[in-house]
Amino acid sequence: MFAHPSLTLLSDSFSREDLFLVVFCLVDDWMQQRYGRSNLRRLRGPQPTTCTDSEVLAICLVGELCGVSRERAWLRQVRASYRALFPRLPEDSRYTRRLQRLRHLLRPFRDQLLRWADADLDPHRILDSYPLSLCACYRIRDSNQPVEGSAFGYCASKREFYFGLRPHVLATYSQYLVDLILAPGNCPDVQGFAGYLSEWP
Where does a domain end: 85, 116, 147? Predict the structure, then answer.
């Protein structure tokens, strides 16, 4: 089984700069294997003046690993502290548009990452869901910040209704998280799994 050489660095103590480099190497090698280049679309003419798709994905993934909740604050930190690693980082709005266009690549990349790490070769997966209440039912009318996709659902274990979402977690038998699907509160597991399969590229 092929193990990516960058993964061996993850077992040692390393800095944030090293984390950026490791994640970028993983993403860029995957992009090269999948598309033969560092960008999703083939570019014509001279090289782009902005960063590559591999860099955009690496910034996003490192932010997730560091528990970043606000994208703009994270981009400001990257510009202030890691400008040498990403000298062609675009402005916030352009970065956000590019990331939205690339988000569908995160799922197959995470799957390939598990293969590189030789973490779990078993093709079987486990799907489970849990209720995520966003607010008490009696406060729904007073709420001025509705969440897209939220709905009324029923939690059988608690024997009560709730208003919110029902995240579906897809994991391997050895408890590696493969994907997370945010579904409405009234979406059962079978329906959520069918929707997940229909969106698979």
Answer: 116
